[in-house]
Hints:
Layout: H1 4-9, E1 25-26, E2 36-38, E3 40-43, E4 46-48, E5 56-58, E6 61-63, E7 66-68, E8 76-78, E9 81-83, E10 86-88, E11 96-103, E12 106-108, E13 116-123, E14 126-128, E15 136-143, E16 146-148, E17 156-158, E18 166-171, E19 176-178, E20 180-181, E21 187-192, E22 200-201, H2 204-218
Parallel strand pairs: 1-3, 2-5, 3-6, 4-7, 5-8, 6-9, 7-10, 8-11, 9-11, 10-12, 11-13, 13-15, 14-16, 15-17, 16-18, 17-19, 18-21, 20-22
Amino acid sequence: MPKPREQHRREPRELTELPYADHLEPFEGRLAQGGDYDTVLFDGQEFDDADASNARFIESAFTSVTFTGGRYRRTRFSDVWLSGVRWVGGDLTESTWTDAEIISSSPAGTALPGAAMNHVAFHRCKLDSVNLRAAELREVSFVECTLRDVDFMGATLTGVSFPGSTLERVRFDKARMSRVDLRGAVSLGISDGYDALHGATISGVQLMELAPMFAHILGVTVDNG
């Protein structure tokens, strides 16, 4: 049985490999509040300022879809597959993501405070200025991703890993971590929350890189004179 870190490095599935691929029906119409979208294929659509709050997406796939703005508060995404999706802005407060696979996608300026993510895999994604404050991430992997100005303030991270990913100006202040594996990250650009790394695993090289900040937090003066 492969180790968890090896599982996180495996290649994502293709659309045709999804167990529900043969049952997908092309989406027609508009997104609606409280809508139920079961085994639906969203392909190439552009949703501008849509309101799908409290909607449910179950065993559905999204390819080359663009979301601009919009309201998706408390929306549920269960067993979904997203590839080449752009999400510019948008309010996904307290949304729920379960068994989701997100590939080569680019959420930017997206608000996900209080979101719950369980068994979610990001592959080769670019997350820019994403708000994950007070979110709960359980068994989530960021594989070969770029996380720039991502805010995990007050979030709970359990079983989260970052193999091959680059972190730039990421905030972890007041976050709670358990079984968080940072060893595979290409770089650890953390702007706030070094003290929240309690519960995380880092490499010896990363420890040397972070040593000055750890010393500052502990009030240790390093004098090489």
